[in-house]
Specification:
The complex is a heterodimer. By secondary structure, chain A is an alpha+beta fold. Chain A has 3 domains: 292 residues, FAD/NAD(P)-binding domain (3-Layer(bba) Sandwich), CATH 3.50.50; 133 residues, Alpha-Beta Complex (Flavocytochrome C3, Chain A, domain 1); 131 residues, Methane Monooxygenase Hydroxylase, Chain G, domain 1. Chain A is built from 17 helices and 19 strands. In chain A, helix 5 packs across helix 12 and helix 14 packs antiparallel against helix 15. Chain B is α+β, with helices and mostly antiparallel strands. In chain B, helix 6 crosses helix 8. Chain B has a 5-stranded mixed β-sheet with strand order 2-1-5-3-4. The chains are: A alpha+beta, B alpha+beta. Chains A and B meet through helix 3, helix 5, helix 6, helix 11 and helix 12 of A and helix 1, helix 2 and helix 3 of B. Bound molecules: flavin-adenine dinucleotide (FAD), iron/sulfur cluster (SF4) and FE2/S2 (inorganic) cluster. The site of FE2/S2 (inorganic) cluster (FES) has 12 residues of chain B, from loops.
């Protein structure tokens, strides 16, 4: 039986819902907040901002991350910028326009009320960050500067050189550090959450492993927040940091939290191509480069001449040719798919899986110095990795997995289907539909952490009668046993294949069958091969070392084990969603020109999967998406 | 990836190397250098990918793989780092270890790899060290004391572009610890001064500037970091090119606090 999902969206006009909801929310008076404890797992943008805000309000907060400092979360790597509807440019931006762009960019697969709230609080984020000392780029008059990003006709992106994520995270980290100093937050670094503890149907704690000593520990609380980021590493190669994983959300899923839209993945068009079998990660080259770079491949198949030897007439600027209105600035999903297409035709450059991003025309027009001023740090990074000079030869780029729109299902309060379990940032599914616009993930993480969760958690704690629970409760013992058993099992198999080898194999299946173009046959084959690989994993994994020590092999093995279950759900979701939308492209569902074809009659909904005790046997529940404020149209960029 | 099955390692050259690596089981045991031979290292690989390859080889031989910290592998998280042939983060200027590529080495080279060495950074295992002391320095005052909400409009206080740029230059520190590892006194001056300078260059940071400097410098001393005697090694190895002039600024802020 499918469960009815209640999104708990407040009634009333779109623009008044959040104010009304805040007013109607239960409050916890300041003196009582000390009595409530909150666990925050993950201290990237979402988690650090939430932990700092909750600590500042007076709750007793315990925060966790697996790196040696909150400052190292994957958020640190974001380059381009953060959106906000400040309209400082006076170019017609507004909360409504940011809302509209985000809904449309997401190909009409996100919840209106959440997205509108995101646009509303976006303006407060910039104020908050400036007050913390985030050194955003400024103009000579001393006011904040903006740049443009894909999918928008206004200039609303705030940035700090090519390191916006770093500066925003350091801002949140400084606020968190202050709360740690004030003893409002107890920080546990190098600690990984391995399971969730549910008592009487409510999330009441977690089981962790201390990554230095190996000690498995219990932590109880009145509410648990998961801010553990995205699952792009299920593909093995991605632009994500090495440690990004699905473990926290997957374990919560197995304890009752629904997993929404797992197949929605963003494949970013401009990344440095794969160089070999031993490669461990892919590096993003910011979207902003497409402002001045022209994308092309040779017209002829197998043309092995150097770029500079191929005359103009023999080059195919395929994005400009196919999408004259948007040219090189079409949205990410479209740019990626077209690059794949020309490479599949045998017209790829370099090792075959790459297209050129050529700055020659721009350099001729505005000069090398201007280009250096705009993109210097990116060109340097490219040169460091490839040993080629992009001022002289065109860059080679290829799409790579970058961001995951799917995640744990949450209602308007960011609460999952387990009461007391809240999910923030990339870990939830909520705001980006089937495709995220550039510079909107940072906005969402900080919106959730600074301005949404502090209210909705107060409402939960103030409005719920919670029995006292300690870590001595039998439920904690039972989950702790599960965790220990699993760890010991991984170590006892002593097979022949390393965690890295399994991870790579899974990644290949995911990339080939669940990547940029998905077909029924391919997905069915993935659904056969992933369980086989999982079976082999549990019989043939080789994990060196012991449980009671710093053991990076054991860490990876645990994460790969969860990816091996998650990958199956991913493929299942992609198979059932018989339409193309945003980053999800089913080859069976395209227009005559080869563009994505949505099916709003049958799929204008969120798919939220419920664990039923066996991997791959989840029930598919549906949250119907209701659009009262935007009209659904086919996206066209021609 | 489709090419994963194709020509392995692109157009790189192959190296055979001898690695001398510091092995230490945990903070309580003594460590020692061990030698390993590795073949088929493509010049296209990053330094950490070379270590991945070594680890796969060690596991196959039934040996304990080398522990080393890393995460982003694109030079921004500050998690990686080791002394390579005596240089923090290896031979390339302004480059983290994860962004160092094997094309900086030659066939037949012997490479020594050791952890950061400093009293305030005890070894956890092999190349991984405990940098909690950096956390404590920031917690002692590396922030502007504002809570969430109730802040003025972001454009209410204009900030001259030059000041914002100077703040950004200092704010780029990734907290890797190379400056401490390279310093003969294991001083944390460059790291600490980068944060102080970032905030002192902004109007929002003015109110607490002297107290901040006093608190952070006190924390630094208490945590066992050494003094600055102007060797300049820190600036030479810093992957983010943080400048020693920040240390001079920090000292001015500190004396301001003493007045
Ligand atoms: C290269 C790159 C560039 C990007 N550029 C932009 C950009 O310009 N603009 C934009 O808007 N977005 C950008 N994004 C996306 C954006 O950076 C991320 O979506 C966002 O930062 C995620 O933040 P988060 O707080 O949700 O998660 P993260 O920052 O990933 O943090 C996750 C946290 O959870 C912890 N954690 C995870 N699992 C566990 C566990 N089991 N136990 C304990 N702790 C755990 C980690 O330690 C970490 O602290 C970019 C992404 C990439 C990869
Ligand atoms: S100052 Fe430089 S070397 Fe020192 S921690 Fe910061 S980035 Fe690393
Ligand atoms: S791994 Fe992040 S800086 Fe090297």
């Amino acid at each position: 039986m499918a469960t009815v999902l209640d999104s708990k969206v407040p009634s009333g006009p779109l623009g008044e819902k959040w104010e009304k909801h805040k007013f109607e929310s239960k409050l916890v008076n300041p003196a009582n907040r000390r009595k409530f404890s909150v666990i925050v797992v993950g201290t990237g943008l979402a988690g650090a901002s939430a932990a700092a805000s909750l600590g500042d309000m007076g709750y007793k907060v315990k925060a966790f991350c697996f790196q040696d400092s909150p400052r190292r979360a994957h958020s640190i790597a974001a380059q381009g910028g953060i959106n906000a509807a400040k309209n400082y440019r006076n170019d017609g931006d507004s909360v409504h326009r940011l809302f509209y762009d985000t809904i449309k960019g997401g190909d009409y697969r996100a919840r209106e009320a959440n997205v509108h709230r995101l646009a509303e609080v976006s303006v407060n984020i910039i104020d908050q960050c400036v007050a913390q000392g985030v050194p955003f780029a400024r103009e000579y008059g001393g006011l904040l500067d903006n740049r443009s990003f894909g999918g928008a006709q206004v200039s609303r992106t705030f940035y700090a050189r090519g390191q916006t994520g770093q500066q925003l995270l350091l801002g949140a980290y400084s606020a968190l550090s202050r709360q740690i100093h004030l003893n409002n937050v107890e920080m546990h670094t190098r600690t990984e959450m391995l399971d969730l503890v549910v008592v009487d149907g409510r999330a009441r704690g977690i089981i962790t492993r201390n990554l230095v000593t190996g000690a498995v520990e219990r932590h109880s609380a009145d509410a648990v927040l998961l801010c553990t980021g995205g699952y792009g590493n299920v593909f093995f190669l991605s632009t994500n940091a090495q440690g990004c994983n699905v473990t926290a959300t997957w374990r919560a899923h197995r304890r009752g939290a629904f997993f929404a839209n797992p197949c929605y993945t963003q494949i970013h068009p401009t990344c440095i191509p794969v160089h070999g079998e031993d490669q461990s990660k892919l590096t993003l080259m910011s979207e902003s480069l497409r402002n001045d770079g022209r994308v092309w491949v040779p017209k002829a198949k197998g043309d092995k001449r150097r770029a500079e030897d191929i005359p103009e007439a023999e080059r195919d600027y395929f994005l400009e040719r196919k999408y004259p209105a948007f040219g090189n600035l079409v949205p990410r999903d479209i740019a990626s798919r077209n690059a794949k297409e020309v490479c599949d035709e045998g017209r790829g450059v370099g090792e075959g899986q790459a297209v050129y991003l050529d700055f020659a025309a721009s350099i001729a027009r505005v000069g090398e110095n201007v280009i250096r001023d705009r993109y210097g740090n990116l060109f340097d990074m490219y040169a460091k990795i490839t040993a080629e000079n992009p001022y002289k030869t065109p860059m080679q780029i290829y799409p790579a997995v970058h961001y995951t729109m799917g995640g744990l299902w949450v209602d308007y309060n960011l609460q999952s289907t387990i009461p007391g379990l809240f999910v923030l940032g990339e870990a939830n599914f909520s705001d980006h539909g089937a495709n995220r616009l550039g510079a909107s993930a940072l906005m969402q993480g900080l919106a959730d952490g600074y301005f949404v969760a502090p209210y909705t958690i107060g409402n939960y704690l103030g409005g719920t009668k919670l029995d006292p629970v300690t870590a001595n409760a039998p439920e904690f013992g039972a989950v702790e046993n599960d965790v220990n058993e699993r760890v010991n099992k991984l170590l006892s198999i002593k097979g022949n294949k390393t965690p890295l080898a399994f991870h790579k194999e899974l990644g290949k299946i995911m990339w080939n069958e669940c990547g940029m173009a998905r077909s029924k046959d391919g997905l069915e084959s993935a659904l056969k091969r992933i369980p086989e690989l999982r079976e082999e994993f549990w019989n043939n994994i080789k994990v060196t070392g012991e449980a009671g020590e710093f053991n990076q092999q054991l860490e990876r093995a645990g994460r790969v084990a969860d990816f091996l279950e998650f990958g199956e759900l991913f493929a299942k979701d992609a198979l059932v969603r018989e339409e193309s939308c945003g980053g999800h492209f089913r080859v069976e569902h395209q227009t005559e020109e080869g563009e994505a074809k949505r099916d709003d009659d049958n799929f204008a909904h969120v798919a939220a999967y419920e664990w039923t005790g066996k991997s791959g046997a989840q029930t598919r529940n549906v949250e119907q998406l209701i659009f009262e404020n935007v009209k659904l149209t086919q996206r066209s960029y021609k | 990836m489709a090419t994963l099955n194709g020509t392995s390692n692109g157009h790189g050259k192959m190296l055979s190397l001898t690695l001398q690596i510091w092995r230490q089981k945990n903070s309580k045991t003594k460590g020692r250098m061990e030698e390993y031979k590795i073949k088929g290292v493509s010049t296209e690989m990053s330094f950490l990918e070379m270590l991945d390859m070594l680890n796969e080889q060690l596991i196959k031989e039934g040996k304990d793989p080398v522990a080393f910290d890393h995460d982003c592998r694109e030079g921004i998280c500050g998690m990686c780092g080791a002394m390579v042939n005596g240089y923090a983060h290896g031979p390339d200027e302004a480059t983290t270890l994860c962004q160092t590529h094997m094309r900086s080495f030659s066939d037949g080279d012997t490479i020594t790899i050791e952890p950061w060495r400093a009293k305030a950074f005890p070894v956890i295992k092999d190349l991984a060290v405990d940098r909690t002391s950096f956390e404590r320095i920031i917690q002692s005052g590396g922030y502007i004391s504002v809570g969430t909400g109730g802040t003025p409009d972001a454009n209410a206080i204009p900030i001259p572009k030059e000041a914002a740029d100077r703040a950004m230059d200092a704010a780029q520190c990734i907290g890797c610890g190379a400056c401490v590892a390279a310093c003969p006194n294991a001083s944390a001056m460059l790291f600490t001064s980068a944060k102080i300078s970032h905030l002192a260059n902004l109007p929002q940071g003015q109110v607490e500037r002297h107290l901040r400097a006093a608190n952070m410098i006190r924390a630094m001393d208490e945590l066992g970091f050494g003094n600055c005697t102007n060797h300049g090694e820190c600036e030479a190895v810093c992957p983010k090119e943080i400048k020693m002039e920040n240390i001079a600024l920090m000292n001015r802020e500190y004396f301001g606090a003493m007045m």
